[in-house]
Automatic annotation (TrEMBL):
Name under which the protein is recorded: Glutaredoxin domain-containing protein
Ranges for domain Glutaredoxin: 14-75
InterPro entries: GlrX-like_pln_2, Glutaredoxin, Thioredoxin-like_sf
Gene3D superfamilies in UniProt: Glutaredoxin
Superkingdom classification of source: Eukaryota
Keywords: Cytoplasm, Redox-active center
Recorded GO CC terms: cytoplasm
Database matches in Pfam families: Glutaredoxin
Length: 102
């Protein structure tokens, strides 16, 4: 779990994904579309991917991917990100975390 927290602390926006996951691809595309360049960790391709996956599970993430952290805070999975985008607060969260600039 510590490796996940460390990665989240060091980056304005982070997304944990798996290379074969279509929802992961969609969430990355949304963040890019909003102007963010999140740190992307493909768990199935990262040397510490299994350890990160267990860390995400320990934090209560289910499903484990995609999972987004913004400003060091766990934001949630695809459903959470989409809800925040629809109500307009996702972009503000990214701005406040300095993951995007206007």
């Amino acid at each position: 779990m510590e490796i996940v927290r460390e990665v989240a602390r060091k980056n304005a926006a982070v997304i944990f994904t798996k290379s074969w996951c279509c929802m992961c691809h969609s969430m990355k595309a949304l963040l890019y579309e909003l102007g963010a360049s999140p740190a992307v960790y493909e768990l199935d391709q990262h040397v510490n991917g299994t350890q990160m996956e267990w860390g995400l599970r320990a934090l209560g993430c289910c499903p484990v991917v995609p999972v987004v952290f913004i400003g060091g805070t766990l934001v949630g999975s695809a459903e959470d990100i989409i809800s925040l985008h629809v109500d307009g607060s996702l972009k503000h969260m990214l701005i406040n975390a300095k993951a995007i600039w206007l």
